[in-house]
Amino acid sequence: MTIKLMQGNEAIGMGAIAAGCRFYAGYPITPSTEVAEILSRELPKLGGKFIQMEDEIASMAAIIGARVGGLKSMTATSGPGFSLMQENLGYAAMAEIPCVIVNVQRLGPSTGQPTAASQGDVMQARWGTHGDHPMIALTPVTVRQSFDLTVKAFNLSEKFRTPVILLTDEIIGHMREPVKLPAFETIHPYEQVVADTPESYKAFRNEPGDVPPMAPFGRGYRYHITGLFHDEVGFPTQRLDEIDPWLERVNHKFDRHLDEIIMVESDFQEGAKTAIVTYGATARSARHALKIARQRGLKVSMLTLLTIWPFPETQVESLGDQVDRIIVPEMNLGQLALEVERMVGRRKVKRVNRANGEMVTPQMILDAIEG
Amino acid sequence: MTIKLMQGNEAIGMGAIAAGCRFYAGYPITPSTEVAEILSRELPKLGGKFIQMEDEIASMAAIIGARVGGLKSMTATSGPGFSLMQENLGYAAMAEIPCVIVNVQRLGPSTGQPTAASQGDVMQARWGTHGDHPMIALTPVTVRQSFDLTVKAFNLSEKFRTPVILLTDEIIGHMREPVKLPAFETIHPYEQVVADTPESYKAFRNEPGDVPPMAPFGRGYRYHITGLFHDEVGFPTQRLDEIDPWLERVNHKFDRHLDEIIMVESDFQEGAKTAIVTYGATARSARHALKIARQRGLKVSMLTLLTIWPFPETQVESLGDQVDRIIVPEMNLGQLALEVERMVGRRKVKRVNRANGEMVTPQMILDAIEG
Amino acid sequence: MIEATTVEQPNIANSPTAQPARKGPRGQVIIYAKWCKGCQICVEFCPMGVLAFAQDLDRAVVVAAEKCTACHFCDTHCPDLAIVVKRFD
Amino acid sequence: MIEATTVEQPNIANSPTAQPARKGPRGQVIIYAKWCKGCQICVEFCPMGVLAFAQDLDRAVVVAAEKCTACHFCDTHCPDLAIVVKRFD
Amino acid sequence: MTAKTDTDRTEIRLAGEGGQGMILAGIVLAEAAAIYDNKNAVQTQSYGPEARGGASKAEVIIANGEIDHPEVIAADVLIALSQEACDKYAANVKPDGLLIVDEDQVERLPNRPVIRVPVSKLALDTTGKAITANTVALGVLVGLTGIVSRQAIEKAIMARAPKGTEEMNRKALEAGFTAIERLAH
Amino acid sequence: MTAKTDTDRTEIRLAGEGGQGMILAGIVLAEAAAIYDNKNAVQTQSYGPEARGGASKAEVIIANGEIDHPEVIAADVLIALSQEACDKYAANVKPDGLLIVDEDQVERLPNRPVIRVPVSKLALDTTGKAITANTVALGVLVGLTGIVSRQAIEKAIMARAPKGTEEMNRKALEAGFTAIERLAH
Amino acid sequence: MSEHILTAHDLDVSEGQIPRENWFESSETLSKLRKSKKFPTIWCSGCGIGIVMGALIRAIDHLGIKNDEVALVAGIGCTARMPVYMDFNTLHTTHGRALAFATGLKIARPDMHVIAIMGDGDALAIGGNHFIHTARRNLDITAIVVNNAIYGMTGGQYSPTTPLDKRATTAPYGNIEPPFPVCELAIAAGATYVARSTVYHALELDKFLAEAIAKDGFSLVEAMSYCHTTYGRLNKFGKATDMMRSLKDNTITKTAYDKLPPEERASNTKFVRGMFCNIDRLPYTSQYDKVIARAQGGAQ
Amino acid sequence: MSEHILTAHDLDVSEGQIPRENWFESSETLSKLRKSKKFPTIWCSGCGIGIVMGALIRAIDHLGIKNDEVALVAGIGCTARMPVYMDFNTLHTTHGRALAFATGLKIARPDMHVIAIMGDGDALAIGGNHFIHTARRNLDITAIVVNNAIYGMTGGQYSPTTPLDKRATTAPYGNIEPPFPVCELAIAAGATYVARSTVYHALELDKFLAEAIAKDGFSLVEAMSYCHTTYGRLNKFGKATDMMRSLKDNTITKTAYDKLPPEERASNTKFVRGMFCNIDRLPYTSQYDKVIARAQGGAQ
Ligand SMILES: Cc1ncc(C[n+]2csc(CCOP(=O)(O)OP(=O)(O)O)c2C)c(N)n1
Ligand SMILES: Cc1ncc(C[n+]2csc(CCOP(=O)(O)OP(=O)(O)O)c2C)c(N)n1
Ligand code: SF4
Ligand code: SF4
Ligand code: SF4
Ligand code: SF4
Q: Do B32 and B173 reside in the same domain of the chain?
């Protein structure tokens, strides 16, 4: 592929195609709509399907339904729509249906400022649906990463049979950068393999650490899928001896695979006693500030989180051991900072927040570094 | 009033009546339905209105609409419905419409186990809707408190023009205890007073720390309400000089009133190096364990949180200063424990979790105390 | 309530009462006791009185097997699929 | 597409073309320039050619005031409420 | 006889099939204690997944003082009207607790002392109505344990009995009391 | 002339009314830099609340190396085609930066050096179409700053020009270049 | 008494006499049940949902569709518990969303027969929007609404099909909300096949269901089946058998209805049974094939 | 040219000549606008939403309703931005939910005239369920749907009213989803007054709106008003004036339509304008008064 000036949202659409996504259901909402528009054009070229549903609830339902039918699927939305998707997002977690949900964050709460940027849905991505559930959320910093992390999102979702949230924002989504995408043939999406026969197949087999593959409907594996607590074959159960192993398996699905799921970019400076922990669009302001700070002779380390959920506990904790101060700039009133505080202690954390739709400026971060 | 054996849900219905609630909209869902059933019977007796809406989204919308029309209003639901209410809950926060949302928690995620208890929506109550926003959530421990905190929820919601969540659970909601309710005449619900004339009235006046009263529609104060960022009279705005004061005022609404909003029950024991931080149904198991522990000569303190959001930071922090270890039992996989860890450091916190629909037993807590 | 459409009314295939009883049973009624919840629909609606409710067993029993016309009312209406009628051919 | 109901069709009160022009203006057309977005609806549909589009001003102007019949097409159809027609009585 | 937990309370579990009214029985027992006997009581319950029917159970904790943990930790008394109920809850009865079963419904018994009473048969025989089994059960329970006074349980039952069924319920309760007296002999 | 920020980059803001195509101009400029001039470029934009129309602006950062912060911090160049745009963004131009305005649209000028070009008039005069103002603006911008090569901007424009409008756009671009040459004299 | 009869006729077979496995083989209908599932069902004694289940199986059987080709999708409610008992591909989703899940599934697998099974609340209260949109788009899905006039699962609150003035736990003074005319709504929204019957008219249900499943387009079958446990009890309508009888007595066929003089039609209070609509429109998935063809043909 | 004309006639008044305050006084319609609000509106030049706003104000004015008695409720979209410009009690809610908010408001204040203003997406895509339920319950609310055949605010995605085969940004190969027959849907759901017109027929809109607001029950007025900026542009339908002309040319009155022979009716492709339904049913709030009376009378 040649170099193209591409928007983050466009890269997401392309990433989905590259990852083997063949079904998209969504409901338009600024600033995510380009993802839908691109896929409405591209998917049918590949025999894939695009549908605009009546709302975001239906969109989330449809992508789950399509994945149950065997197509890798995705939806894209922004805050208000993401709020509406929460119930069925929890369903996907409970029934272990792989799917990718893109949230291009805009300024909230409520209708807020549709065209303004924000990182206001960070905690919602983790806790937006009721009940305990595992969740993965990835946060790209560049247009190219919007592509790469979309592919990754699909792969993780397939491998761990879980919904994955691509949590981007208006800045990265609408920003144009030159990118050269890899040839799609070089990308080898993760494909589940159902090794069992229909007779021996147990869609929800509880072997600790094991994620049983999901047989698509209509291929001889007739089984039951439900949002109720269920046993290994999918039947509803109230028996603790059946629920407990499920809880054990599903809520610890990621534990042994954290190095595969958690992606961070470390830019450590020898002797630095200050570090920045950052993600998404704000990481760009932070890098800018970092370079200036270093030009000025200040020693500063930086950890960019490409995975924010599960939270990179170890990485942040060990960073906390190395430095005296961690700056957490966010386009919100302090959300991921809560987790950083939890890992390293509140007194070490300096939050830099802006929640009015504007980016945190490099100067604000510099002030924090210098202040 | 005489002593009655009453369910928590019934006490909530009665509390709403006592607090002056005159509008209820809801959609049935186990284990919250009794609240609706009681109010469908009681409200019309007082000229109040009850309506069963087509879903929880509409229910949340209707209670906001009714409050805009001047009636104090409430809805009740459980996890799946609470997830659906999130978008309009954010609207209430943004547009500063007082209302009370009861969530009788059941086991999730998804449909989960409708008749089983849980504290799985603790983080969702704070972070379920997109964007930053203030939020109050109260957690009763007894049937009588279900009544009292419902009254309190209405009063706080009126005083601070904010949605308030009464976050109870299947245990407290369905449990029957003998209670003697106060005579309703002795309860003096908070009533907003609009002192301005229609000409001078600004529905969203940004004076720091000040919560402007809300004039009901149709009383001469013709103004605009929106979920977009808005100026002091309610018109949409993109001007930072108008948005910033709003953010400042609304996101710090509670700051100067924390002693009024944050309710805790302390049971400190001289010399205790272990403490329990607890809330909701689990507080009852904790009390049981505490008594046994003390009988056995162990020194243990306890802090019961009746307000979980805003999180009682000061109270928990100072408790952390006094003890070496804080036990946080929860009917979930560790939610409020995250906040406790943030305040006192992870190493001090010992989580005791059960997320299979069963109560945390006193024995589990005792083991933690003794272990 | 419903407006006319251009489509014709379907015929009801098997009206239970339309089939007169002949001599001897035309079918065998089998009740799977474990599944019967004793709702008495079969008992009440069997046009021939083949079935009865056994209070002590809290379920339906066959009391007049010989009268069965194999009209299939009972097995198509048992909410628990606890009856099978086999037509003698 | 729509099925018949028992209700009658309302009359359209003012069909713009139904009113023939008489001598002299019957009304005064006022355009509030600041609100006009130059969509040309008034220009295109004024049956009397009272209005014109001024390219340089990017808005509508009155060019034949004397022909106005006060038919009110323009002020009822200006999407920006930038026209008022006052009928001379 | 009713053994005390560490915090001085009596834990009672009433279990049966949905529709047998065991939850109502639990409520009535708690009311007897709390309203008519000046004690403290907390009542909880649980249902099976069935829309109606299926297993159901009520729990009642009775104490003189505060009741914290609202559920049975280890039952002082279990009354089980169905096999499923007995299977499920018998193990949780304290060694010195009471296990009461309906002798016609529960065939497989655990290896421990069991009090067998023909609860549903008594109901049918006394009132002709199977649904009075829960009242009979209360009679048995109170007769055996004295956890609330007979007057209290009678008042509580009467307060809840639908109009016209008072006499029937009184008889059913009586039948429960009498059954115990017979047992005692 | 194009002042560098601390991290060596040129920050350009193009602002006008919605429909004037300033966002497209920004994209084309970024493409000229990134695709045809082998530089790095990042382009962002913002809209007003209006469904269509209203204020709109594009920002382009051009650099040889990495571009981190994607927005203008202090503009090296601002081209403003409307009064509102000028009012809003003029203050953010660096003291030694360039402020270019459409002289027929922007009457109130800030107290600083301003380059006044009759952008929309040139467009109308050259092509007869007001919508080519953005192409004229690009000509002016590139002519003045040389931030991308003339070949690059031309290629970028041609690649985006709808079929049949190539010639018109070429003329508009030329008009921009020429205007500068006139200015320079 | 009955023990005696049992022995006398040896026709009433208790579990001891027919092994569970064999029972599943004693009819075509039973053979499509899930042998791995616990029976009897969770429904109340006498609840008509099981009758609809029987009719559905017979309809599928009649059409000769293989088990593997059938996907049953349900929301939440008593009715929604139906799929789990049948040996098809079964998806039990969230309350009200069955048709939205079914839409995704059908588009992913146009070759499968996708059937959505919903209670009236599931389909028409919380699920009303998906109902009208799935009809409008003409997804080739069969929607079955078991109309029990109430929310059964949650214990008897009024639903959008509760008749006027009837009581529900949330309508202690009688319901004031007019019920939806379900079939008319589906027709207005765009359904291609619409029929209604009752669980008393089980074989008519078989027929309508078979026609609906065979239909190439969105089809709706409304099956009246009162919930005696809640609706019946709250309104003193008697036992399951009494309510079954009322279904027999209080309906009129469409043919008969159409023959009524206009005045009588207007005053008719009986439920009209019959097929109300059967039109031909290309279903969504076939339309989408055209989109793919256009996209791949390069036309844009 | 124009400057000259201006001076010649002194009839075309620019802001300099009429002070803003005075302009608001120059007609009854203008006097109901919010003087405190920035004008012109945010809508595109030539967008018909403003024409509907004019019609609405005239209808309210015609009925002699005081500003304070009117509550306008809107969701999200271009259309939904209408209320903010008018000097009533105005509530701008969330996308699709206007009628649900309006329901609460109307029940709280039965004395007020509650009017919901929605785009087709707002009312019928995400808001479809509230639409049919509010009609069913017969809340005395006037629903105005400005049908521009597309999602305007978000830039031209297809909506449940986009005609078949037309293009939208998310239907680059043409739309394959049949549009809702909005009025029929409302009638099937239970609306008591239903009418449709277009922004070309502005005075007809006045009349329908006035009748709808006066109606004691749920009323719907569908106002056709194409979005030329998105729908028009994507389908090459020309400028605002061209689309306005198409509204003129491509509609037929209900009276005329009813007179067509059946074949012509079937092949008619024009939009039918007119009032389609006007029936009497007691509105929800009056029904609820009965509930209160029953509750207070002690009957339960
Ligand atoms: C979002 C959500 N809201 C509410 C519920 C609770 N709920 C479960 S089933 C049901 C309604 C049952 O009625 P219906 O759909 O008519 O089915 P039935 O049980 O009568 O067959 C309700 C309200 C839920 N599960 N999820
Ligand atoms: C929950 C939610 N989803 C999506 C959106 C984005 N959105 C805003 S307006 C709109 C649709 C606009 O179309 P319509 O309702 O027909 O109104 P119009 O703008 O055409 O007047 C959409 C999808 C939103 N604001 N909220
Ligand atoms: S009222 Fe307007 S449209 Fe009518 S004749 Fe006069 S200027 Fe023309
Ligand atoms: S209709 Fe109104 S906005 Fe359009 S040109 Fe005429 S005066 Fe201007
Ligand atoms: S509650 Fe009603 S609908 Fe549900 S199973 Fe029982 S009878 Fe059937
Ligand atoms: S985008 Fe369309 S609907 Fe929105 S204001 Fe413009 S013309 Fe009107």
A: yes
Query: Residue A280 belongs to what domain range?
Result: 265-370
What residues form DSSP beta bridges with G145? G118, G222
The CATH T-level fold of domain C26-88 is Alpha-Beta Plaits (3.30.70)
| Distances, alpha carbon B135 to alpha carbons A79, B245, G199, in Å | 17, 19, 49
| Inter-chain CB proximity E53 and G45 less than 8 Å | yes
- Judge: H188–G172 Cβ closer than 8 Å, yes or no: no
**Regions of chain F where pLDDT drops below 50:** 1-5
pLDDT at D78 over 80: yes
Pair (A165, A309) in one structural domain: no
Q: What is the pLDDT of residues G88-108, one digit of tens each?
A: 999 999 999 999 999 999 999
Last residue of a domain, one of A150, A168, A186: A186
- Is A289 in the same domain as A172? no
> How many domains does chain F contain in total?
1
Our CA angle for A325, A327, A331, nearest 5°, is 165
Encoded tokens for G141: 């899905």
The pLDDT value recorded for residue G300 is 46
* Residues from B in contact with F at Cβ < 8 Å: 236, 238
What does the DSSP 8-state code read for residue B347?
G
Q: How many domains does chain G have?
A: 1
CB atoms under 10 Å from CB of F81, counted, come to 28
pTM, to two decimals: 0.96
pLDDT digits (tens, 9 = 90+) for A286-334: 999 999 999 999 999 999 999 999 999 999 999 999 999 999 999 999 9
Please compute the mean of the pLDDT values over residues H144-151 and round it to a whole number.
Answer: 98
Domain extent listing, chain D? 26-88
CB distance H152 to ligand 2 below 6 Å: yes
Q: Which residue has the tokens 């000569």?
A: B297
Pick from A121, A155, A186: which residue ends a domain? A186
Q: Do G152 and E54 touch (CB under 8 A)?
A: no
Rounded CA gap, G95 and A57, in Å? Answer: 11
C-beta of D62 in contact with ligand 4 (< 6 A) = no
Across chain B, the runs of DSSP E, i.e. the strands, are: 4-7, 23-26, 49-52, 73-77, 99-107, 113-117, 136-138, 163-169, 176-179, 224-226, 264-267, 274-278, 300-305, 307-309, 325-330, 349-353
Which positions ≥6 away from G234 have C-beta within 8 Å? Answer: G156, G166, G167, G168, G169
CATH number of the CATH domain containing G72: 3.40.50.970
Residues 274-293 of G with CB under 8 A from B: none
- Which range marks the domain in which residue H256 is found? 46-297
Question: What range defines the domain where residue F35 resides?
Answer: 10-184
CA distances from A358 to A285, D40, E111, G162 (A): 12, 38, 72, 51
The CA distance from A236 to the nearest CA of chain B, in Å, is 9
What does the pLDDT average to over A203-212?
86
**Domain holding F94: CATH number?**
3.40.920.10
Q: Which two tokens stand for residue G22?
A: 């064999």
Q: How far off is chain B from E64, nearest CA to CA, in Å?
A: 13
Please name which of E107, E118, E93, E115 lies closest in space to residue E3, comparing C-alpha atoms. E93
The predicted-structure confidence for G7-23, as pLDDT tens digits, reads as follows: 444 445 665 678 898 99
Residue A178 and residue A317 in one domain:
no
Q: Does A275 lie in the same domain as A180? A: no
Residues across chain E:
185
State the ipTM, two decimals: 0.96
Nearest to B156 by CA among B350, B19, B299: B19
